Amino acid sequence: MSTHKLLIVEDDPNMGSLMNEMLRVKGFDTEWCQDGESALAAFLEGNFDLCILDVMLPKKDGFTLAEDIRKQDPHTPILFLTARNLIEDKEKGFGIGGDDYLTKPFSMVELQLRVNALLRRSGNAGAPRNEAATEFQIGRYHFDYPTRQLTLDGAEGKRITSREAELLRLLCLNMNDILERSIALKQIWGDDGYFNARSMDVFITKLRKHLKGDPAVEIMNVHGMGYKLLVSA
After folding, report:
1. Euclidean distance between CA atoms 121 and 214, whole angstroms
2. Do 7 and 48 form a contact (C-beta atoms < 8 A)?
3. Where are the alpha helices (H) located in 7-61, listed in sequence order?
4. Dist CA 184 CA 190 (whole Å)
5. What is the pLDDT of residues 182-197, one digit of tens each?
6. Edge-to-edge strand list for the sheet holding 135-138
7. 3-state secondary structure at position 6
């Protein structure tokens, strides 16, 4: 049985009760709050391994709540729930420190998979990043950096360009975290000037096309910060 403690913040009584009961049945220790203010108080008093935050909440919305949580704790994973599937909402959520996003309606099975995936990732959060890594698994894709081969489901791969490979490797090293634009530009292009930034945007578009064969893989723009390579559970 799991010993992980989850904070659930959902104002809809039916949805909140359903999530709370399902996750308890799966072995999680849960605390359910129905507004942002009581949720922040609970977070400050508790020791949670993951927060599930509805975006539309009374008293304090989910984004504001997440910002307050991040002021106290930069590491505990945050999973946002929303009824709106807007790219602006996703960019804002990731920009303030969210780790994943689930759009309503969703199945309880999908919720559990997302929770388990975030807990696995956070379990390795303190481990040093392997800067020497040359092979990466990206969802159903396998990326061999030295040969620049990108393979889907073990089929014959495609050889991407040298600059595409450099950028993809940086994204992989920061998988599910933000790769800052300035860092990528300085490492690959040598400086973070305007024209190099526009060039990198073009290469990001190319990488998205290369990875479109797996719907679980996404390169997300994080407004004002950079990019995030996401692999959904």
Report:
1. 20
2. yes
3. 13-25, 36-45
4. 9
5. 888 888 888 878 888 8
6. 135-138, 141-144, 149-152, 158-159
7. strand
- At 49, the amino acid letter reads D
**What pTM value is reported for the model?**
0.56
Residues ≥6 apart with Cβ < 8 Å to 152: 140, 141, 213, 214
CA 120 to chain centre: 13
User: How far is the C-alpha of 114 from the C-alpha of 122, rounded, in Å?
Assistant: 12
pLDDT tens profile 75-126: 889 999 988 777 777 788 888 888 888 888 888 888 988 888 888 776 644 3
Per-residue buried b or exposed e for 158-167, using 16+ beta carbons within 10 Å of the residue's own CB: eebeeebbbb
Phi/psi zone of residue 226: left (φ > 0), alpha (ψ -120 to 50 degrees), beta?
A: left
Q: 86: Cβ–Cβ under 8 A, 6 or more apart, which residues? A: none
Reduce the DSSP state of residue 64 to 3 states and report it: helix
Residue the block writes with tokens 């508790």: 46
| First and final C-alpha spacing in the chain | 20
Cβ atoms of 229 and 138 closer than 8 Å: yes
Task: Decide if 231 contacts 120 (C-beta within 8 A).
Answer: no
Q: Which amino acid is at 216?
A: A
The amino acid that residue 212 corresponds to is K
Cβ-contact 155, 143 below 8 angstroms: no
Q: What's the farthest any 2 CA atoms get from each other in the chain?
A: 54
